[in-house]
Amino acid sequence: MSRLLLDTTFLIDAERSDAELDLWIADDDDVAVAALTLAELRVGALLSDGAMRARRVEFFEAVKALLPSVSYNEDVADAYADLLAHVRRVGQPRGAHDLIIAATARASGRRLVTADLTAFVDLPGVEFQTHR
After folding, report:
1. Which of 9, 108, 110, 129 could make an S-S bridge to 115, C-beta 3.0–4.6 Å?
2. pTM greater than 0.90 (yes/no)
3. How far is Cα 116 from Cα 132, in angstroms, rounded to an integer?
């Protein structure tokens, strides 16, 4: 059994391609999303129009109903501070949302599943896998 945290990019790719998440996730895996990922998916739905909006709202609601979310708490805040200090120290800036999602994975002891091949490289204590 793996403890996984699904990144927003992974979920967006799954939604766009109508991919079955079962192809990437074993039945016995413990899967969750960061609370921030729910916010990012909801923003995508709210900024869409027409049929695309309806589809994205439906996808957001399905993810929200099916997967538990890991809240931004003190452990995540501590991990975020460590990661932010690290990327500033080494001169490799990352987006705040990516760092919060990485911190959520690190603090919750989960491996991050992402479609982004570069956002999480060389972040101490963050295990990740790409699906591409």
Report:
1. 9
2. yes
3. 9
